Amino acid sequence: MDHALIDVLVVGAGGTGLTLACDLARRGVSALVVEQQDALFPGSRGKGLQPRTQEVFDDLGVIAAVRAAGGPYPKMLAWQGEKRVREWELIEPAPAEPGVPYPNPVMIPQWRTQQILHARLLELGGSVAFGTRLAGFTQDADAVTAELAAADGATRTVRARYLVAADGGRSTVRRALGIAMEGETVDPRPSLVADVRIEGLGRDNWHSWPEAPGGLLLLCPLAGTETFQLFAQYETGEPDTSFDAIRELVGERTALGAEAVREVLWASDFRPRAALAERYREGRVFLAGDAAHVHSPAGGQGLNTSVQDAYNLGWKLGRVLRHGAPDALLDSYQDERRPVAAGVLGLSTKLHQGTFVGGSGPVQRGKQTSQLGVGYPDSTLSVERRTDLPAEALRAGQRVPDLGYAGSARLFDLLRGPHATLLAVGIPAPELDDPELLVRELDELAGFGPGLFLIRPDGYLGLATRDAADLASYLGLVTGVRQRV
Prior knowledge:
- The chain is 25% helix and 28% strand.
- It has 3 domains: 5-70 and 108-183 and 273-369, FAD/NAD(P)-binding domain (3-Layer(bba) Sandwich); 71-102 and 188-271, 2-Layer Sandwich (D-Amino Acid Oxidase, Chain A, domain 2); 383-478, Glutaredoxin (3-Layer(aba) Sandwich).
- The protein is α/β, with parallel strands linked by helices.
- Strands 1, 2, 7, 8, 9, 10, 18 and 19 form an 8-stranded mixed β-sheet that branches.
- The chain starts with a strand and ends in a 7-residue tail after the last helix.
- The chain has 10 helices and 27 strands.
């Protein structure tokens, strides 16, 4: 048995696990990330990063790499055989607006996003134990005892204060806990997704054959690569992920011909389903990402919701493990994120049915998929003490926008990092002794009005008040530091 007690065992090195590991590493939390496969996930599956996720990646220090590797979504182009039928924007470009530094999604294949996150984790001093699976675990009042098995058959036992299951929709951790998934089949027809190299097809459009024999087929040029993501729906039969079968599929459903497919880099079959875990926590074990919720890829919400699960959980684990915050803070993870996932399931199902059930290809997406409107107004961590607010006022529980202040300075420059932030707008800031709390006095700030505003480490407004006395109890919960104010 490893003699040292680690803080967090993260099971799974996908987008969820890597985001969480990066966030924990910058907070000085010791985390062991184990991944059953020998390398990072090789497929493009979640290929779009929404505006809110880009803000998360800005905070984690990877947004420059993400934007350099990705690109905008191309226009959709519907075909009927060799005939071009119509062209349209899948995502109507959003205009620049105050407080939104990244108004439009970025297309980047999931494998590349995970490479970037893994590189960042290494920079932060973390690592991933590849070829290592969780063989079993138990928990007691103090820690989780986990049995790990390597590919060569070697085993070891580790003790961790907490375990986070980021091991996907077929989560072994969730099943071991006996946590049920509540949901339904969104579409009984099977589908296939694959990364392919194709000759003779332009990369300026996302190509759609909505009336192809056998079912809809889509070919999307993946930004920053020379490959296309293929999506095919099957009216009858079962998907075959072999090279020859995929070539035959393209030959049957498009005018390209089977010989246009030069290589298949990755392929998988699935049936769209919407399901939500009954609970996200069992003692010292948490579910995150696809281990907690699965749904149709329509709308580009899956990877984004998973990344934001990790972002929500990371700072709370950091506060409990490093700053003495009460364990009850961790209960707010489920309270905040499960309702968000329920909303995503409903949205994804609606978009899937509009797109693939009698539709003519992907329907246009808009602000509803950006996730900029996600917030936690009903959370116990959202405390609004002001009254008689104008309609446009920012309220506790809402995402804090990237507003300008003091000339060219930006709020996100203040918020970036693992700390919480206290803004004293138009009133003096109280004296506080907390190294994990950044305090700034501002003469004014658009949308805020005068008052004290405690911004959580994940960029949501936690406390809004005009009375410094309200800070004491809130700081005790969120920062783990109770002090006189």
